[in-house]
Design goal:
With about 350 residues, the protein is an alpha/beta fold. It has twelve helices and 15 strands.
């Protein structure tokens, strides 16, 4: 049984993070934030997939100003990602950001940081102190060396140093992230940090890679930490559509029995008996179930003969044959369908289940 590490609770746009709150799934847009229409469209896509917190890059004043319209068009809390420029942090908060991600040490000194903290207090916005292996101060690297699995000290000290800068300003609505592109360094760093602070932690492996490499690296590192009760919110970082990040995140939580959102999809790996394009069928069903919230088990099987029996624990499933497919429930035949109509009919059945019919 997983026992969560007890942390403080902060509230980000109505979503609690830390304490006994559910582990929150977040992602980041990869659109140009200044393009309000494209950014809102992408956020609506991740909202449908279950995303609970969204972060956007704010590289200039125009991007900061766009936050007003973006926030008005979405339903999940909006976080601004800021690098180096304290003015952009203040502007983002004034234009509706409900949280900001900064590295306090690179904003230009105590006076500029004080202005950012004052704006965060005024707008009730938490701050994430985000430190990556590539952004550690030179004196800490000289003292402790580059972070590695057996010595992540520089990463931890950088984060705690920046947290102390905020605490000196009387600000404690903080969450912390310390990311590395190395899986084992990420694990050891968060394990050590969790023993030194009770602030909520945002987990992630930075620059993890594409769909396969990124999913594996993130799932290994975050799976270990979450199983140990470490982590209050997280992002799966992939060089992909952010919807894919959200899909992987919820599957990770499901696999650890931490959170259940929507259907669990099971599908066979295919074999020589498969006579339909099961890859496309499974992918289409997987995309659809990401929009569902009912916690049912859905199966996509390639063999009409053995499929229903192999997936008899599924609430509903589909199996294809040569020119014909079947839809089954709890291993029993429900209806036969022409192969070309199989996907549309099955998705309609799932829609009816979601609607409670």
């Amino acid at each position: 049984m997983i026992v969560r590490r007890q942390t403080r609770t902060i509230v980000l746009g109505g979503v609690p993070v830390g304490g006994h709150s559910p582990i929150a799934v977040q992602t980041m847009t990869n659109t140009d934030t200044r393009d309000v229409e494209a950014t809102v469209a992408q956020i609506h896509g991740v909202e449908a997939a279950g995303c609970e917190l969204i972060r956007v890059a704010v590289p200039d004043e125009k991007a900061a100003a766009a936050l007003t319209a973006i926030r008005a068009a979405i339903s999940i809390p909006l976080i601004a990602d800021i690098h180096f420029d304290s003015r952009l942090a203040v502007a983002a908060l004034e234009h509706g950001a409900q949280g900001i991600r900064i590295n306090p040490g690179n904003l230009g000194g105590p006076d500029k940081l004080a202005r950012v903290v004052a704006a965060a207090k005024q707008h009730g916005a938490p701050i994430r102190v985000g430190v990556n292996s590539g952004s550690i101060e030179k004196d800490l690297l000289k003292a402790h060396g580059y972070p590695r699995p057996d010595n992540p000290t520089a990463l931890i000290e950088s984060a705690l140093r920046n947290v102390r800068l905020l605490e000196k300003q009387g600000f404690t609505e903080i969450k912390i992230s310390i990311k590395s592109s190395d899986t084992l360094t990420t694990v050891s760093a968060y394990q050590a940090l969790a023993k030194q602070t009770d602030y909520p932690l945002h987990l992630g492996v930075t620059e993890a890679g594409g769909l396969i490499a990124g999913t594996v690296k993130s799932s290994v590192a975050l799976g270990i930490l979450l199983y140990q009760g470490i982590g209050d919110t997280f992002r799966i970082s992939l060089t992909r559509d952010p919807v894919e990040e959200v899909r992987v995140a919820f599957e990770l939580l499901r696999s650890l029995k931490i959170r259940e959102r929507g259907p669990e999809l099971i599908s066979c790996p295919t074999c020589g008996r498969t006579r339909i394009d099961l890859f496309s069928l499974a992918e289409a069903v997987e995309r659809f179930v990401q929009t569902m919230t009912k916690p049912i088990k859905v199966a996509v099987m390639g063999c009409v003969v053995n499929g229903p029996g192999e997936a008899k624990e599924a609430d509903i499933g589909v199996a294809g044959g040569n020119g014909v497919g079947i839809i089954f429930k709890k291993g029993k035949l429900y209806k036969k369908v022409k192969e070309e109509e199989l996907l549309s009919v099955f998705l309609q059945e799932l829609k009816l289940i979601e609607e409670g019919q």
